[in-house]
Write a structure and sequence with these properties.
The complex is a heterodimer of chains A (about 325) and B (about 120).
Chain A: H1 2-18, E1 27-29, E2 32-34, E3 48-59, E4 68-80, E5 85-98, E6 104-107, E7 111-121, E8 126-135, E9 151-161, E10 175-186, E11 193-196, E12 202-205, E13 212-221, H2 223-230, E14 242-253, E15 263-273, E16 277-286, E17 296-304, H3 305-308, H4 310-313, E18 315-316, E19 320-321
Antiparallel strand pairs in A: 1-2, 3-4, 3-17, 4-5, 5-6, 5-7, 7-8, 8-9, 9-10, 10-13, 11-12, 13-14, 14-15, 15-16, 16-17, 18-19
Chain B: H1 2-12, E1 23-27, E2 33-34, E3 40-45, E4 55-59, E5 72-73, E6 80-84, E7 91-100, E8 106-115
Parallel strand pairs in B: 2-8
Antiparallel strand pairs in B: 1-3, 3-6, 4-7, 5-6, 7-8
The chains are: A mainly beta (about 325), B mainly beta (about 120).
């Protein structure tokens, strides 16, 4: 019995540690509530759990691979170490289903990240933070092309609500923007591969592992903010806790043969937030046809652990129990 | 195993825990114009709030406090925060509130209303 309990606990912990690609946080600054965004990271540190995040996109075919449907099942556990410092562990299970072929699946590399909030202005609903992401090379499956090398991503995050606009523009006050700018730097410049032809000749290839500028934004209109602080327009539940959102998720290699060529998606969607969790769903629309010609989908359940059980989930080794996130 | 069960139970039955209290509705309504000076400003929250640490204040267009200073949580309804008002002349007023939910979550906000 004890062995089974330990095994179940280990499985739960593994699930928390091994699942997700995207990193999110929710938070309050002044009277502004920012929900956790689905596809981009936002500037807050929090005690929270995204589980699961599910995405689907049909990738276009290339010279080396047929058109392929990609399903990602991911999760992320985030923990504050102080009021302004947090860490996250995330992982993604990838399922690739190529046209005319058999599907393959496996875990992508484990992602570890740290974030520090260095500026807060409640009056201007403004938050700035710095982060460092670590894609841990070799922890994922080669079947789904998980890299064998580490990738380090220094990041700058911002969040800005527009509640400080003049009253003449009051209907713009519920509007908010978050952004994340990062540079993904591979620890290995080239990855050496060996291919042997029919005659036994060995061909050595050393493709460049590009450094990639990652940039993402979310544009949000918070209906709870409208209803509670600007104008009671009589929205009923659950609409009064919805946030229409558009996320932009883009990346641009800074070297290699695709240097300067941007790919990514535009994700219009909606988030509903409750007291203890939020639900989000977005369409995934490629900005060009380089990656996909099709529209995909993204959905997520996200738990506010600091609200569910603050005495447990906001405990820190050096600062005691932080309590729930505060404005 | 008991630790797992405890966490699972709290995830499934979060009413055992707490969360930030957000306004549900108010009188006068947020951003609206009323025909005559209201006797009080009342805000109903979506959860129980702590009487000692929850406050409400009303200011006029010159940022002068105009309420009666008797801000309180209704003893019969732990979600209702209110403050009395004297007879207000026509104009625009702003309500500032700050509440602490029963488990320590703090939220704050403000909104305007107009007296015709």
């Amino acid at each position: 019995m004890k062995g089974n309990a330990l095994f179940a606990f280990a499985c739960a912990l593994t699930l928390l540690l091994v699942t997700s690609a995207t990193a999110e946080a929710h938070g309050l600054i002044g009277k502004r509530f920012f929900p956790a965004t689905l596809a981009t990271d936002d500037p807050f540190v929090a005690d929270e759990l995204s589980l699961p995040t599910i995405s689907y996109l049909k990738l276009r075919g290339t010279e080396e691979a047929p058109p392929t449907r990609q399903f990602d099942l991911s999760g992320e556990f985030s923990k504050r170490l102080s009021a302004d410092l947090g860490i996250s562990l995330a992982g993604t299970f990838i399922i690739l289903d190529p046209d005319g072929g058999s599907s393959v699946n496996g875990f992508d590399n484990l992602e570890v990240s740290a974030k520090y909030v260095f500026f807060k202005s409640a009056a201007h609903e403004l938050l700035l933070s710095l982060g460092l992401g670590w894609d841990v090379g070799g922890t994922g499956s080669k079947k789904v092309d998980a890299e064998s090398f580490d990738t380090w991503t220094p990041q700058l995050f911002f969040g800005k609500g527009f509640g400080d606009l003049p009253d003449q523009l009051e209907l713009m006050k519920p509007f908010a923007i978050t952004g994340a700018l990062g540079l993904a730097i591979p620890s290995r410049v080239h990855t050496k591969t060996f291919e042997t032809d029919e005659d036994g000749n060995v061909d050595v290839k050393k493709p460049l592992n590009a450094t990639v500028f990652q940039w993402g934004f979310s544009f949000q209109y918070n209906l709870q903010y409208l209803q509670s602080y600007v104008r009671d327009v009589g929205l009923p539940a659950p609409i009064n806790r919805m946030v229409p959102i558009v996320e932009l998720v883009l990346e641009t290699p800074v070297d290699g043969r695709n240097a300067g060529h941007t790919t990514g998606t535009v994700n219009p969607g909606i988030i509903w937030f409750g007291k203890y969790f939020q639900l989000g769903i977005e369409a995934v629309i490629p900005v060009n046809h380089d990656v996909s010609k099709n529209v995909g989908a993204l959905a997520q359940i996200h738990f506010y652990l600091d609200d569910i059980l603050p005495q447990v989930f906001t405990w820190t080794p050096f600062h005691g129990v932080l309590g729930p996130t505060q404005p | 195993m008991s630790r797992l069960l405890a966490v699972a139970a709290l995830l499934l039955f979060p009413s055992w825990a707490g969360a930030h209290a957000f306004p549900d509705h108010s009188e006068p309504r947020v951003g609206h114009t009323v025909e005559a000076s209201p006797p009080s400003v009342r805000i109903w929250f979506d959860g129980q709030i702590e009487p000692v640490f929850s406050k409400i204040r009303v200011e006029d267009g010159d940022k002068r406090q105009v309420d009666k200073g008797d801000s309180r949580v209704d003893p019969a309804d732990g979600t209702l925060l209110e403050v009395g008002l004297p007879a207000l002349p026509p104009g625009r007023y702003r309500v500032y509130w700050s509440v602490v939910a029963r488990d320590g979550h703090r939220t704050e906000g403000d909104f305007a209303f107009r007296v015709k």
